Amino acid sequence: MISPPVNGRRKGLSACRRIPRGWSGLLISGVLWACVAGSEGPQGPGNPPANPAPGLRADLFAGPIQVPDHVRVDSILEMVVAVRNGGSRGADAGWIVRVMLSTDPVIDSADIQVDHFSAPRELPPGGEDEYLRHKKLRGSTPTGLYYIGSILDVTGRVPEANETNNVLQFPATIMLTAVEPPPPEGGRLRAWSGSYETLDAVRRAQR
Predict the structure, then answer these.
(1) Helix or strand (DSSP H, E) at 206
(2) What does the DSSP 8-state code read for residue 124?
(3) Residue 44 in this model has a pLDDT that exceeds 70
């Protein structure tokens, strides 16, 4: 049984057209609704085209970075870099992460770069991941207190719903300390004050 028309169209049918039909040689004054399956019918005021669904996009968030409280500038820095995808589409592997040292809490590309690597695996929608990294710090890096944070997808490889959250907003802090002086010659204890002096000389200068 064909359902009655609803708003000019018949319920459950893709599209319809009117065609005249004869019966036993007589012209029937009525018309028969014939439907064409799989078609949305002519577009017009009564049948507007469907709006396409918005495209799915990833949305990368820079997460916290776990680092030690202090480290020497000539040593290996171990860190755990966290990321999250808050979007509706996965982010394929291969997008670039940079880790930066900054003298202020605002992380940007002008800061000191300590690591640069590509995401090793896909990050699904709503997923989180952590990357364990080991990086040797340059001995020429100035010592002192720094903020450490990440910048995600620096080459713009991942289509994102929001590009403004790819930089860590609340970076951790880390103290870079000086290189330890080499061991004293002949086993004698020496004190470091910019040049090597015997401990006895230091004591005499303090009297």
Answers:
(1) helix 199-206
(2) -
(3) no
Q: In what order do the strands lie in the sheet containing 96-102?
A: 70-72, 172-177, 144-152, 96-102, 112-118
The amino acid sitting at 10 is R
Backbone angles phi, psi at 150, to 5 degrees: -120, 155
pTM (predicted TM-score):
0.62
Q: Tell me, what DSSP letter sits at residue 8?
A: T
Cα–Cα distance for residue pair 74/166, rounded to 1 Å: 29
Amino acid at 207: R
The residue with greater pLDDT, 184 or 168, is 168
Please, is 95 exposed, middle or buried when counting C-beta atoms within 10 Å of its C-beta (0-12, 13-18, 19+)? buried
- 93 vs 33: which has the higher pLDDT: 93
Count Cβ atoms within 10 A of the Cβ of residue 170 and give its class: 0-12 exposed, 13-18 middle, 19 or more buried: exposed
Q: What integer pLDDT is reported at residue 114 of this predicted model?
A: 96
Tell me the pLDDT of the chain averaged across its residues.
77
Domains of the chain: 1-47 (no CATH), 60-177 (2.60.40.10)
